[in-house]
Amino acid sequence: MARLAGLVIYETLGCFCQKVYRYDPGLYTIYNRCKHAAANSSPTESSNITGLYAAATPVPSPHPCFKPWSYIPDGIMPIFWRVVYWTSQFLTWILLPFMQSYARSGGFSITGKIKTALIENAIYYGTYLLIFGAFLIYVAVNPHLHLEWNQLQTIGIAAANTWGLFLLVLLLGYGLVEIPRSYWNGAKRGYLLMKTYFKAAKLMTEKADAEETLEDVMEEVRKVNESIKYNHPLRKCVDTVLKKCPLEYQEKMGRNMDDYEDFDEKHNTYPSEKSLVKLHKQVIYSVQRHRRTQVQWQILLEQAFYLEDVAKNETSATCQFVHTFQSPEPENRFIQYFYNPTVEWYWECLLRPWFYRVLAVVLSIFSVIVVWSECTFFSTAPVLSLFAVFIQLAEKTYNYIYIEIACFLSIFFLSICVYSTVFRIRVFNYYYLASHHQTDAYSLLFSGMLFCRLTPPLCLNFLGLTHMDSSISHQNTQPTAYTSIMGSMKVLSFIADGFYIYYPMLVVILCIATYFSLGTRCLNLLGFQQFMGDNDMTSDLVDEGKELIRREKRKRQRQEEGENRRREWKERYGHSREDSTRNRNVHIDPKESNFSDISTNRSASKYTRANNRTERDRIELLQDAEPLDFNAETFTDDPLESESGRYQPGGRYLSMSRSRIFDDV
User: Fold this and answer.
1) How many angstroms separate the Cα of 62 from the Cα of each of 235, 272, 281, 398?
2) How many helices (H) and strands (E) does the chain have?
3) What spatial distance separates the first Cα and last Cα of the chain, rounded to whole Å?
4) Which pLDDT value is given to residue 155?
5) Which of 35, 137, 171, 402 lies in disulfide reach of 421, CB 3.0 to 4.6 Å?
6) Cα(647)–Cα(641) distance, rounded to whole angstroms?
7) Which residues of the chain have pLDDT under 50?
8) Residue 602 has what pLDDT?
9) Which residues form a coiled coil (predicted)?
């Protein structure tokens, strides 16, 4: 998609320097018009044009246009456009819909998945074929219409671009307002934290629903697993379904398997292969959703903890950023050296809010320029589109670098506004782009279809804004390679002179609706909770999310405190016990020792045992503060398990058992 958008820039840059080297562009246009008029006029009229024809002879310009280093020869760009455009159309209308159905299918073989995908897309493909067939019949019956193959191709391209332009304006109207506003709100203190609390409350509800759905699906899998035994013909399908289940459920279901029973011994009703395909599809969806909510919950917790740290460190007098929880992953030494706590405090607490405000103002200016140009790009005399004004100024002076920068920034900002909206779209759980590699295959393919459909009309809209499309600007200029591939839209005058010109003006209404959050308010009235500052439901969800974050924070603090205490016990008492054990293992020959040494050792061992007993009692008192899992078979997390030997699997102290009560004597 980036290559397709980049071809527009190269096409815009190349059209200025292909045919007008060292000549003024205005005189060259007059020269071509006079030459065409003289060739098609009568002998009497040609004499009148001779003077103008001679006066319009191109003369060297004071600003020569040198051939740029990135100049593309004639005939190359049309080939590139044909390859890129038709491959993208093949992807968006044929291949990607088929891959969507294939990825969502629950079949157990490649042939089964292909069959399911073809059946699901039969209606999709049949609708387009029916419309196209009706149009061909209408053209063949009507005697006043004589369309050739090129004209039919142009009509098909116009239909695809019309559908893409319809989506483009909708997404562009949202992105032009929402992107600057998101950065401006990001600079407000506490806004991001309140929104994170709101997301936490909604995500917890979704997480609980995903867990409940997974439990229900796993219960169905368990019933199927118990009914279909090892020698059943559909057992391979059941094994395939079990492999998609989480490991804990696989272990539970594996324990209750009775492989010695034959499926013919009991006259039970067994599920069909079609029901297993449906169950397989449900398992894939429920497991993926459960995993996604778990990962998103952990990421949201980290984000909430970090925003709370930012709020606490804003009033810090030491100008050192202090984290409540350290990152589990070790940071790079280069980052630790340059992005130290002092730099982090100045960036998070002082510089970033002002940087976001400045960036929001710059993006707002770009948005105003785009809205103004979308509403006035059809005016050629005078030229009101700011994009066209900038390009024509560079055209007069042949400033190639300026043309590159202007075209790149323009199409880059348009692409961000359109494509960022695609990433924010969520249609329930049917289509949803989740971060951190948690998006399912169906949503990824659906986003790819949107990108393929939006890029050609985005390029066409950019050429219209810069007055490079002759069908929109109505100027006798050299056509670009893109418009030569698209064909002349004059075949459909109501699209070329109506829809392409006046429909982009709708972006003004969409920007106003986005600014006042009309879509958010409508969704909120329908029962879909949205983040709105002046709503009671939003306040309740923010309070609920705040309590959930506080609960998770206390839980993590207790875990870290327990780990720290265990680490301190290992460091403090682990070495002393190792030394005492090592001393006990030393063999002393009684013949080489005298009475004084023996008495000294006895007195030392006496006090050593007493001290060891005191230390062990202290450890037991401290260990009583830690919760014990009386249902566990082993205590693997206990630091004193392998060293002191004072616990047994039942959760009791070995020192309290009768058989070893005199071991210390």
Assistant:
1) 84, 83, 70, 10
2) 25, 2
3) 81
4) 75
5) 171
6) 7
7) 1-5, 8-14, 16-59, 586-614, 617, 619-665
8) 45
9) 200-227
What average pLDDT does the chain have? 76
pLDDT of residue 339: 84
Ramachandran area for residue 436 (φ above 0: left; ψ -120 to 50: alpha; else beta): left
Cα 87 from Cα 99, distance rounded (Å)? 15
Distance, CA of 384 to CA of 377 (rounded, Å): 6
Cβ atoms within 10 Å of 526's Cβ, excluding its own: 8
CA dihedral 228, 234, 236, 237 (to 10 degrees): -100
Give CA–CA dist 151/157, Å, rounded: 10
Write out the two tokens for 275: 């029901």
Separation between Cα atoms, residue 577 and residue 639, nearest integer Å:
12
3-state secondary structure of 516: coil
- Tell me the Cα Rg of the chain: 37
Among residues 349, 360, 279, the alpha carbon closest in space to that of 319 is found at 349
Please state the φ and ψ torsions of residue 647, each to the nearest 5 degrees.
Answer: -125, 155
Helix 191-227 / helix 536-584 crossing angle, nearest 10 deg: 70
Please identify which residue in the block is written with the tokens 């058992």.
657
pTM over 0.85: no
Q: Which residue pairs, CB below 8 angstroms and at least 24 apart, start in 487-494?
A: 487/150, 487/151, 487/153, 487/154, 487/157, 488/154, 489/154, 489/158, 491/147, 491/151, 491/154, 491/155, 491/158, 492/154, 492/155, 492/158
Q: Classify 563 in phi/psi space as left (phi over 0), alpha (psi -120 to 50) or beta.
A: alpha
Q: d(Cα 274, Cα 619) in Å, to the nearest integer?
A: 62
Tell me what pLDDT residue 22 has.
Answer: 34
Nearest residue to 426 via CA among 618, 292, 624, 243:
292
CA distances from 346 to 183, 190, 350, 458 (A): 19, 17, 5, 40
Joined tokens for residue 132 = 């196209």
Burial class (CB in 10 A: 0-12, 13-18, 19+), 541: buried
Task: Evaluate whether 113 touches 99 at the Cβ level (below 8 Å).
Answer: no
CA angle 126, 110, 452 (to 5 degrees): 50
188: tokens are 């407000």
Q: How many CB atoms are located within 10 Å of the residue 85 CB?
A: 21
Q: For residue 342, count other CB atoms closer than 10 A to its CB.
A: 12
Q: Please report the pLDDT score of residue 214 as a whole number.
A: 94
Helices (H), 23-95: 25-40, 43-55, 76-90
Q: Are 103 and 467 in contact (CB under 8 A)?
A: no
The 3-state secondary structure of 86-134 reads HHHHHHHHHHHHHHHHHHHCCCCCHHHHHHHHHHHHHHHHHHHHHHHHH
What tokens were used for 162? Answer: 């019309």
